[in-house]
């Protein structure tokens, strides 16, 4: 089989394996990518991430719901764990390199949205410092300073914990005005993000998933240009 | 002129008997910061004392003219009693609700007591009991007292990591089904306990099961049978509350057997009323944080009127009232319910 033909076949396997949350299929295809000496980053972006884009469409169309999204994410991680150690820095390029601090703010133990965003950053080649959930506000500031991360991503699923975000943003911007702050979670709106002084937001828990998937898509487009 | 006490008004509404005015109440927490401040305590203190819990609820009702008091305020009392712990955030700035810190990480870790009634002496369960007793006795039983319990799926998500539950619902159906069966027994036991204490209505909050999370098909197979069993095991009046997207499942919600359906602001009330008819109480559906905390007071009355115009029998917030309310907005909400709710609603007439 010609190399390009093989590449296409394995990308399709990875893509469909993610969409159909078939972890075994993804595992086999990812290993074959390495065995055949194909490009691991190409397999991540145009196989796994492309599959996740399709998952986003199915979610938009209400064919998939959160259980399916989570299973698709698991399948993606199976492939990512195999392929990631073999990604060469020159493949990622400067546009997608960086570090991000991510966590769910204090009082909020819901971390499904946060974990999907984390996956998106990992797919894109970022180094992710995951603080977990129910994170005291000052911990975000400490971790950003310690790691010199360019992005801090905060998640709150409940209105009741959203107000903590405002304090974190102020604390971080006071120390380092150049840090980009992303907010996500069900109660966060563009007005809230803007009012709190954030640089970006995802409209809702469901929308955070879509935004993450779109961001993966955008990164793929950039990479393919 | 009022001819009914708050309790009589709420009870009549649930019996679908004529009322003198639309009651102002909820099946979720209605504690306000104004009441907590008047007591001179911090919000975190209301969760650990039956007396303070009851007083903060009663004071909120007295200050703003609510017809009912509802306790407890947080969703951790049962998980705590089952050994999952509780984070109370006693030192945090501002208002934070308690959370469960140690959920089971897998179905293998699930461990429930042989006798589910043993939980009523554990954790803060006795605190809630005390609060209910105080609320029932206050001022000669003036206020209706509402009790609530999470629905089986949502209770499961408070005890077991939510991603484990959600993924298991799709790929480990048998074990998740067995787990939810146990959750149903647990919910029934807690709800019956509150009914035995004398609450005037019980709200089952299956809030984690809207179609933001689960497909209607999964709702029908995984949620509906358990909710139906819960309502069959309880005395009336019973409320079936789900927040988030409910348009696609509200017909199935109605089949579960409660006297009342409660939905949040994502529901299309006019369509829901058509689906369920006028023989069932419909409660809803304003956004409590948006309307009572964020918006201008002038925006409150039109939002309340819209709920009534679209066919609710009582205007309920879509979730707990966030305590940090603007007093003038709550006053406008109560005034608007009385004013626009003067006439009969689809399921309840007027004296």
Overall description:
The complex is a heterodimer of chains A (225) and B (351). By secondary structure, chain A is of the alpha/beta class. Chain A folds into two domains: 88 residues, Methyltransferase, Methionine Synthase (B12-binding Domains), Chain A, domain 1, CATH 1.10.1240.10; 113 residues, Cobalamin-binding domain (Rossmann fold), CATH 3.40.50. Helices cover 62% and strands 10% of the residues of chain A. Chain A has a five-stranded parallel beta sheet, sandwiched between helices. Chain A is globular. Chain A starts with a helix and ends with a helix. In chain A, 52% of the residues are buried. About 4% of the residues of chain A have low confidence. With 351 residues, chain B is an alpha/beta fold. In chain B, strands 1-2-3-4-5-6-7 form a seven-stranded parallel beta sheet. The N and C termini of chain B lie close together (11 Å). In chain B, 44% of the residues lie in helices and 10% in strands. Chain B has a single domain, classed as TIM Barrel (Alpha-Beta Barrel).
What is the subunit arrangement here? heterodimer
Number of domains of chain B: 1
| CATH architectural category of the largest domain in chain A | 3-Layer(aba) Sandwich
Total number of domains of chain A = 2
> CATH class of the largest domain in chain A, anyone?
Alpha Beta
Shape of chain B: globular
Distance between the termini of chain B: 11 Å
| Most strands sheet of chain B | 7 strands, parallel
* CATH class division of chain B: Alpha Beta
Give the overall pLDDT of chain A as a whole number.
81
> What is the residue-averaged pLDDT of chain B?
96
Spatial sequence of strands, sheet with the most strands of chain A: 2-1-3-4-5
- What is the strand tally of chain B? 7
The counted number of beta strands of chain A is: 5
* Low-confidence runs of at least 5 consecutive residues of chain B: none
